[in-house]
Specification:
The chain has 15 helices and 13 strands. It has helices at 23-37, 56-61, 83-86, 91-98, 133-143, 147-163, 178-187, 222-234, 252-260, 271-280, 296-304, 312-315, 330-340, 347-360, 363-374; strands at residues 8-13, 41-48, 65-69, 104-107, 125-129, 172-175, 191-193, 213-216, 243-247, 264-267, 283-286, 307-310, 325-326. A 7-stranded parallel beta sheet has the order 3-2-1-4-5-6-7, sandwiched between helices.
Length: 379
């Protein structure tokens, strides 16, 4: 059943959600697309900054798409509010949201400047949480080697933890993982689990064997750099199963280390080239050292790749544990890889994987569940 208010929903996105080349915008874009496919009209509001520009493609799918410049640098700074939130304020956005009483979905704590605003009192307001943001920034601060960056992350974490209390004003909070929901339920009783939205309609993993192991991710992000460095330094070289690292914007330090260890580094592969790398690998090796949210690279590997080897922070609380091989230590990783290199990925394993993924990560099913959360009679 569609909502009573003409079947329209305001979605406020922290970034322009196209192209879909990183985790957060993937969830936003495919969520909006899935909601439209079940009959909801999306009014999309995007904060725009950096290299991500207004997209003709978005307006073709969502005719009511609006853009607002994010206030970066000193213009976005506040002594009391987190930078990621204060920099995403727009009087024009508030005016558009207040012009009707359609429900509003704020994507991430980033977009919650106007959550609970008196001008929006007639609209039901919802928040999609992509991470527990203060924990995410706490992790960033702990792992940042540059003093001033580390100081910024730690300050941002403290401000975000305080600001998080504003979530009490939401009619409902939508967590992206079981772990996030457990945390949010301790503080807010109006939390539901809506798993990540993604671009995959079916499992296309190829039975058989591959000739390499693959790590992929945005290599300009410290979290992914840490994972890549772990693999470079801790994995034992296997001639029959060499390591390939692929991803966007690798720093010179990573290029040098890959060169020294004779590891192939593929910088800035196209979307198609990266998908092919994932599909042809024998094993996608995906450690992480930040157990926040859900990593969409994990879904990409499971929908497209063969074996998937992870550590506990990558998979715990996702419902995908039984689809992965799990290693806790460097020794465990090496032991698992030596076992995997001689194994064939089977059609039976593919069918079991498909069943689990369709149960928990169907865009259509999760869009209907989200729609139920938005409906007044379901609140």
């Amino acid at each position: 059943m569609l909502m009573a208010q003409a079947g329209k929903l305001h979605v406020v996105s922290f970034d322009v959600p196209y192209p879909t080349n990183y985790g957060g915008v993937i969830d936003v874009y495919y969520k909006c697309k899935a909601l439209k496919e079940i009959g909801l009209e999306i009014i999309l509001h995007c904060f725009q900054y950096g290299e991500r520009k207004p997209q003709k493609h978005l307006r073709e799918i969502f005719p009511q798409t609006y853009y607002y410049p994010r206030k970066t640098g000193l213009a976005g700074w506040s002594p009391r509010l987190p930078y990621i939130i204060h920099s995403r304020r727009s009087k024009q956005l508030l005016q558009r949201l207040a012009a009707d009483d359609h429900p509003i979905l704020f994507e991430g704590l980033h977009c919650c400047s106007y959550l609970g605003h008196h001008k929006l009192a007639s609209s039901r307001q919802f928040v999609r949480m992509h991470n527990i943001e203060w924990q995410y920034y706490q992790h960033l601060g702990a792992r940042e080697s540059q003093f001033f960056k580390s100081l910024y992350y730690k300050r941002e974490s403290q401000l975000l933890q305080t600001y998080e209390k504003k979530l009490h004003k939401a009619h409902k909070i939508m967590a992206i993982s079981k772990n996030d929901r457990a945390y949010l339920n301790q503080n807010f009783k109006n939390t539901s689990l809506i798993p990540a939205f993604h671009p995959f309609n079916q499992v296309i993993s190829k039975p058989g064997k591959g000739r390499y192991m693959l790590y992929h991710g945005n290599l300009s992000v410290n979290e992914n750099l840490e994972a890549a460095n772990f693999l470079l330094h801790q994995l034992e070289p296997i001639e029959q199963l060499p390591l390939i690292i692929a991803g966007a914007n690798p720093p010179q330090s990573l290029k040098q280390q890959c060169n020294e260890r004779k590891v192939k580094l593929i910088a800035n592969p196209s979307h198609e080239a990266l998908n092919k790398l994932i599909q042809e690998a024998q094993v996608n090796v995906l450690p992480t050292f930040q157990d926040t949210g859900i990593k969409l690279k994990l879904l990409s590997a499971l929908y497209q790749g063969r074996f998937c080897l992870v550590n506990p922070p990558m998979v715990e609380g996702t419902g995908l544990e039984k689809l992965c091989m799990i290693a806790k230590t460097a020794r465990d990783f090496n032991k698992q890889i030596h076992h995997i290199q001689s194994q064939e990925y089977t059609q039976v394993a593919n069918e079991q994987r498909a069943k689990t993924l369709y149960q928990g990560f169907s865009n259509q099913r999760n869009a209907q569940q989200l729609l139920n959360c938005l409906s007044p009679q379901k609140d």
